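User: Can you fold this complex?
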Amino acid sequence: MDNCREYLENLCAYVDNEADDSICKEIEKHLADCPDCRVMVDTLRKTVKLCREGREEPLPGELKARMEAILEQKWKEKFGEDGEDA
Amino acid sequence: MNEKELILAARGGDRDAFNELISNYTDRIYRLAWKLSGNQEDAEDIFQETFLKAVDNIDSFRLESTFGTWLYSIAMNVMRTCFAKRKRMQLGPIEDFLPDHANGVNSKLLDWGDPHDLFENAQLREMIDSFLSRMSPENSTPFVLRYMEDMSVKDVAEVMGLSVPAVKSRILRTRFALREYLSEKFREKKNG
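Assistant: Here's the predicted assembly.
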């Protein structure tokens, strides 16, 4: 129970399924005996899963149109009307 | 044209090439700005300023990174300026987030089960957004880039000008902190 800290460095890689096999085996051996760390690993995984779910803020069409107009002007200031450096 | 050819053309003043380069990133930069700022007004300012700076600097882009990494780096600098005056929640060391039993106390962490049994998707999303927007951007940004923009740790390090170990550490701390924050919300809900 007192060696949870030893796994800390590799925990993120483990919960993302990116840890080496040998490290996975060590962590899993620990998890078999440590209910809290099992919950920790499970909830860390769910944390990212929840972040990837749900709504995304769409880019408002009006903002996109406004940005395109501003960039058009900026581009002309920088490169001139025909694409040459101003 | 491939990306390199597009960049070279844009550097020479080809507006269409520039438009093609940014077309894959407009939604992503806006989404990132929204997640990290937590409000539409700042997200719009960051979005606009990022692309204006990209135009300003396109002719000095030296092809030492991908266009995407370069653009995200600009967005990061814009956000640093935008957030400079805000007070944000700081995180303690990773050890603070370990189960208490690491300190000799036999704690019982809350087993979440299925969070969707406790909250609707929109509520979960709101909680996560709220947490991230109150965090220090130094910690929230690597987490958002890694897990919500699906960027590799190496690319996050390049965008933020940090070492890979530093990025890993920040991602882990934010992940632990968010886990703890959500656990608290779930515990409150379960206890009525």
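The longest helix of chain A spans residues 61-79. The interface with chain B takes residues 1-2, 4-5, 8, 11-12, 35-37, 39-40, 42-44, 46-48, 50-59, 63-64, 66-67, 70-72, 74-75, 78-80, 83-85 of chain A (CB under 8 Å).
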